[in-house]
Please model this.
Amino acid sequence: MNIFKIFVFIFVLNFLSTLDVLGFKGLEAAIYNSYMSQDHGRWSSLKLSLGDDVFYRAVNSTDYSDFVFSVDFPGESCSPHVEGHFSQSTSAETTEYIRVAPAFFRVDRYPVHEALVEYSTVRGDKTVYFEFALADMARLENEMKQGNVLRLKLEPIYGPGNDVFVELSLVGSRAALDRAYALCINNQSNPQDFFQEEVTPSEAEEYF
Model:
């Protein structure tokens, strides 16, 4: 079994475990508050929050009127992951995880990335949500910062059929990714946090 197949196996196990824990109740339409939005060519960066849930986003929402692609940096870890959503003409009848399918990413002529995509809907919402899992997110992010076009190859949302191809400009992606990550890191590293509690000499030595 090659590395990607092992990765797929682990992802599917985790996905099924999530379904069992959430009982399909984890999918809820939520409106996040946005702050500090800044444009970077075809991309933009911003902060999003809902209660204690905070993350920082680099997003391309300009190339398609019905498809949005983003790289998100959760506030607690700042580890990037890829998401997206597609607008459809009719509202979803149910809140559900539709399926997990293979997906492929390619920046310019760099090697192809194999991935998985999880499709989901929220009842009454005209949006299909995508969440991607990649074996090497760091490599994809680095290529996005250097490349010109990101291409996606996706299976149809509801089952096998003609593959769907998406092309996204990477103009401004470097600035958006760098800013979103910097905002996340800065949020984690407030100088005042280091003076909230007393530390022993041995602990203080670790900072020098």
Summary: The longest helix spans residues 3-22. The chain is about 25% helix and 40% strand. Helices lie at 3-22, 137-146, 173-188, 201-204. Residues 34 and 48 are 5 Å apart (CA to CA).
